[in-house]
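Q: Give me the 3D complex with fe (ii) ion.
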Amino acid sequence: MIGGVAERDDGRRALDPIRDEIDELCRAATAEVRRRADAFWEDYDRDRDAAKLAAWFVPRCWREIDYVFMLGEEIRRYGMRFERKHVTALARQLHDEAEHYDAVGRIIERLGGEVPTEPPPSAVRWSAFLWESLERHPLGAIAAWNMSETAATGTLEGIVDAGRRYELPDVARIYEGIIKDEKFHVGLGRVMLDRYADGGDDLAEVRRAMAGMAEIVVSSHVALDLPL
Ligand SMILES: [Fe+2]
Ligand SMILES: [Fe+2]
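A: Here is the predicted complex, encoded as C-alpha cells.
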C-alpha cells in the first residue's frame, strides 16, 4: 500500500492474543451485512423506487463525513503518540472520506434525495458509539471504525454489481473507487492496532470497541431512512 504504511513492516503483532476472536467477529458481521444488502437489492429489483434508493445511500453518505470529523479529531487529540507516517496515512484516509461524502452526495442528489448534514436516525447509534470509543482510548475509534469498514465491504461489490445491472453508471464508477480506498483504510486500521496496542488494557479496549461495533453494524448498515 502507500509507502508501505498498510503493510506489517515493523513486525509487531500486538493483536495476536485476540486476533482469532476479532477475525471471527469481522467474518460474521461482514456475512450478515452482505446477506441483508442482497435482500435490499432483491427488493429494489421488484420495485425500482428512486426515493428508496436515495434513502439507502443517506446513512452511507453520513458515515463518510462522520469519518472525516473523527479522523481529524483522532489526529488532533492523539496524533503525537503515533509515528509521522501513520499521521500522514490517517490524513490521507480523511481526504478519501471527504471525497466519498462528496461522491455519494452526488448520487443522492441525482436520485432526488437530500445529502445528510446531520446523522440520519439509522446512523445515530453508530455515530455515538464511535465518538464514545474515541473518547475512551487512543485506539478505541480506530478499532470501532475498522470493524465498521470491514463489515461494510460486504455491501460494496453488491453496489457495483447493482450499478451495472440497473444502469446507474455513476453508482458503479464511484463505488469501484471506494472499494480501492477501503482496502487501504481497513489495512491501515489493522496495522495501527498491531503497532500501538500495548498490553492487556489496550487489547480489552480494542475488543470492546470491535465487539460493540459488530453488533451495531448488522442493523445500521442496511437501514433506510425513508421520509414518513
Ligand atoms: Fe469511505
Ligand atoms: Fe473508509
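A quick observation: DSSP finds seven helices and no strands in the chain.
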